[in-house]
Design brief:
Elements: H1 6-16, H2 24-33, E1 38-42, E2 48-57, E3 78-86, H3 95-109, E4 115-119, H4 124-129, E5 133-134, H5 141-145, E6 152-156, H6 161-165
Parallel strand pairs: 3-4
Antiparallel strand pairs: 1-2, 2-3, 4-6, 5-6
C-alpha cells in the first residue's frame, strides 16, 4: 500500500464496513507507522479489490476503532490485524489465507509470537476456520466496546502459517 492507494482503501472500507467507520487519518497513520503491514490487492489494472491494515501491538486489548495510535509499542507481543476488506468479486479465491501467511511471516521476522484481530459482524466462524481462537480473557474492555456489541477478540499463533496457506475460503 502507498499513500496514493488511501482514497481507494477508504472507499472500499466505507462500502464494506458501514457499521465500523474509520476516518482517513486512521488508515494514513497505520500506513506511516507500519507500512510493511499495509497491503492492497489490485486487479492488475490499478483497481483496489481489497486491502489489509496491520501493525505490531501489545496486550489483549485491541486499539480502539477509529483511534489514532501516536506510536507503536516498544515491545509488541502480537501482530494486530486491524482491518481486512475484500470486494465481493475477490472473495473465495484464497486471498485471505495468503494474506495471513504473509502476516505470519512478517510477525516471525520480528519474533512476535501471535496474530490478533477483532472479529465483527458474525465473522468469528470464518476466522476460526483460519486458525484463530476467541481470546475471551476479559482484558479488552472499553477498546473492544468500540467495535460494537458482537465484537470477539481472537488470536492465532503464526506457526499455523503453513496450515493457513493451504486453507481456502469458499
Amino acid at each position: 500500500m502507498t499513500g496514493a492507494d488511501l482514497g481507494a482503501v477508504q472507499a472500499l472500507a466505507d462500502a464494506l464496513h458501514p457499521d465500523h467507520p474509520e476516518r482517513p487519518e486512521v488508515f494514513a497513520e497505520r500506513l506511516a507507522l507500519a507500512p510493511e503491514g499495509c497491503l492492497i490487492l489490485s486487479d492488475g489494472a490499478g483497481a483496489v479489490l481489497g486491502f489489509a491494515v496491520s501493525h505490531p501491538w501489545r496486550g489483549a486489548a485491541p486499539p480502539p476503532l477509529d483511534a489514532l495510535l501516536g506510536r507503536l509499542p516498544a515491545a509488541p507481543d502480537r501482530w494486530h490485524l486491524h482491518d481486512v476488506a475484500l470486494d465481493l468479486a475477490a472473495r473465495g479465491q484464497g486471498h485471505v489465507p495468503a494474506l495471513l501467511a504473509r502476516i505470519a511471516a512478517l510477525a516471525a521476522t520480528r519474533a512476535i509470537p501471535m496474530i490478533g484481530l477483532v472479529a465483527v459482524g458474525g465473522t468469528e466462524r470464518l476466522w476460526a476456520r483460519l486458525g484463530f481462537r476467541a481470546a475471551g480473557d476479559g482484558a479488552a474492555g472499553a477498546a473492544l466496546a468500540s467495535y460494537g456489541p458482537d465484537a470477539v477478540p481472537m488470536t492465532a499463533v503464526p506457526m499455523l502459517r503453513d496450515a493457513l496457506a493451504n486453507c481456502y475460503i469458499n
